[in-house]
User: Fold these one by one.
Assistant:
Number 1:
Amino acid sequence: MHPQIIPRSEHPISRKNIHPDALKVMYRLVRKGFTAYLVGGGVRDLVLGRRPKDFDVSTNATPNQIKRTFRNCFLIGRRFRLVHIRFGNQIIETSTFRRCPELDDNDSEELYVFRDNCYGSPEEDALRRDFTINALFYEIKQFSIIDHVGGLSDIHKRLIRCIGDPNIRFREDPVRMIRAIRFASRLDFRIEPATFNAILRHHQEILKASPPRVFEELLKLFSYGCGEKAFRLLYKTGLLSDMLPEVADFLDHDHGQDSVLWAWLRHLDDRIRETHEHEPVLIFATLFHALVKRIVARQTAEYAARGENVILHDLLAEYLLPVCARICMPRWMAARMIQVMINQSRFVPDKRRRFSKRGFVAQDCFPESLALHELGLRVSGDDLGRCEPWSALHQEVQAQQLEPAAEMSSLPKPKRRSRKRPRRNRVVREH
Ligand code: ATP
Ligand code: MG
């Protein structure tokens, strides 16, 4: 099938919005006689007038041919063999055109693709991509866009549409379902009905995907401050009950789409948009906070009925550590998240409990603890001024911790010790 070629005069992509290093890579490959296109999310974002996160290039040069063309490059990846071309801090990811691997007849029931490293034509490369909006190519001879899949029309219609049969594409790689939700929430696009229905039908396949990849994708849902919208979609499609059944169950018992959790996520999104900081510990603490609070309240009552005292840390660890291990959250992150949750009680004035405020604010996880407390105040509409004394004390303690280092740096440097061998040795050799 012939692709649609959109000439420069009919699309908004200008070379001045493309990173000069990406242009360098494309120009050099083309000069060597290869085909090279800007591909993927970069082209999509440029068409939408957004600043791309990264610039990826695809070419018909093989990884070894790319390596011979650029000295500053590294072959990476087990799943896909990719080339990273480095220019200072900037990396231009360059891949050879690939196609979907052919499946054996035996594999027809089991579509999950473990390796897809078969080289292919540019058209095959477009067809193996996930969504039409992610499969546009931009070339630097005529500066036109090459569209094999109707991606430009879907961008204009603001639609996320699978390339090919979504029932097959989601079973080949279930992580694409979370990606569909990520792009829909981040770009404020709709998921086209056949694609959406395929997610409803195959959401449980996500359990076959690699947990660390799923964990990474879950975090990415928050990266542009669109977590609330993304999680509403995860809940609606059933994906949430597969990945985080505890959170889905909490929502089921807390008015579903009207749950208090959505207010927490909304305020978290506001914070991420404001600070541009992506804080994984805070993200998961926010997700689990409301349901953990409910469990703690229930357990405390049960313990009290038995005349026993509840140890908060043990209770949280017993409940959360297996959940964190299941979703492949690193252990340090789980431990820090639990500490952030425990710390919440310290913000509540309680004359019976004495602790060192300075010690508390000096904790590594204090900033996330205060951030979670502040989100809670926003959710309940309480006075945010309550955070100010804590922020001030935190700054003061931090400044004091830095002081000794500053003082040390102003002291005269100790004299360097001579590396001369001790004289005695020489005397010994003379004998
Ligand atoms: P972002 O702006 O978040 O980086 P992106 O579209 O660039 O979005 P990447 O994860 O960087 O997403 O992937 C680059 C491109 O590779 C995608 O645009 C898509 O064409 C292709 N791709 C990525 N993951 C998959 C997948 N699971 N299945 C098929 N194609 C994929
Ligand atoms: Mg990208």
Number 2:
Amino acid sequence: MTLHTIILAAGKGTRMKSTRPKVLQTLAGKPLVRHVLDTCAAIGADSTVLIYGFGGQMVKQALAGYDIIFAEQTEQLGTGDAVKVALPHLPTTGKSLILYGDVPLTTENTLKQLVAANTAGISMLTLEVDNPFGLGRIIRKNEQVIAIVEQKDATDAQKAIKEINSGIYCVDNALLHKYLPCLTNDNAQGEYYLTDIVKLAVADGVEIATISPEFDFEIEGVNDRIQLANLERHYQAHQIRTLQHAGVQFADPDRVDIRGRLRCGQDVFIDINTIFIGEVSLGDGVQIDAGTIITDSTIGNATHIKPYCVIDGSNIGSDASIGPFAHLRPQTLLADNVKIGNFVETKKTTLGQGSKINHLSYAGDSEIGREVNIGAGVITCNYDGVNKSRTIIGDGAFVGSNSSLVAPVNIGNNATIGAGSVITKDAADDKLTLARSQQVTIDNWHRPTKKT
Ligand code: UD1
Ligand code: CA
């Protein structure tokens, strides 16, 4: 059996008041439709057809790299018409999941269950809600689904039904090919309703299976910025709860955002106003203090990230101490027991075990050995305005405060650089190197006096 996915994404999303198509608005830092596509990839769909309308060029651009078939729905004549646009790309065997580019959070687990529930031709995702207004109602007779009636077509008795149609189905392709061409638009909205395939299938004796999602947010769509923000909060709360169940301590679960995937060891503590972006991994006993933003990085066991650090594309060893106010930029590789202090910036830099840069420094394009001490205010001058060059510092070196290391340059093992030096040539192992003018005292000098 092949499994296909059809994603409806032709809606403009007028209420977003945006130049971007709705499905490209972001939730947890990722376009809505990419949440859906990533879930489709996770369940192993054999093909995906995306139905687009407004902003097709932008949608295609944003989804370059995904293996999808784009099919244009030129006029929005209803959900039934939208799925019909996918038919030429759909085999006549196998099953299709029908999903929506603006319903981002249906889980892999729910979709797998939905596929498994389709044993007779159609399965659908329904839910009992307190306020069903505006949604399609599930009409049952002797427990069996016999139809879906839209709000605008419903009788008062039907409007009282609380079981609603999520709009998400798994349908045999043979049935889609059979019923979609038969849809008509003689209803209150003059639309081709996809929901009418249920009626047609029931008339053919097909039993409709239904399942419900584990979480309500799985079927929630996004039409405006308020719904988007609400769904974001639901999603964040869900992710944090999952991590709490796994043993992570959050000072305040409402003040942490995860925009990607956060993996944590045991006894991790995460303080308030922290943001995790992309793939972040924290070892056992890691402590992340307030205000820190970590992107695509790995942090080793028992490392302490002090307040207000920005860490991007970095790999930090165990028992390290970073910040407060440190900026680790991509390709920063720090070994165990490294200390990076306040107002230190690193980029494309490795530090060996036990090395320290404690205050007000920039280390870029550099390779720093073990047990090195970089004094306050040391700068690697890695850029001459045209090219970047490397600075190599040997094990056990001590670089005095406020020195400038003009790259390319090598500082030897156990070398000592006198404070305030501008080093333009290699410094020898084990020796003191100074590069600054001598201190002089002028005996007969007087301070200027005010002219009258
Ligand atoms: C549809 C269902 C309704 C269900 C509801 C859940 C139908 C007839 N009704 O409502 O039973 O409770 O979803 O939200 O299917 N779209 C297109 N092309 C179109 C029309 C819609 O791509 O021509 C896309 C929209 O961009 C949106 C989705 O389909 O992502 C649903 O459209 P919307 O108008 O919100 O749903 P309804 O038809 O009102
Ligand atoms: Ca509609």
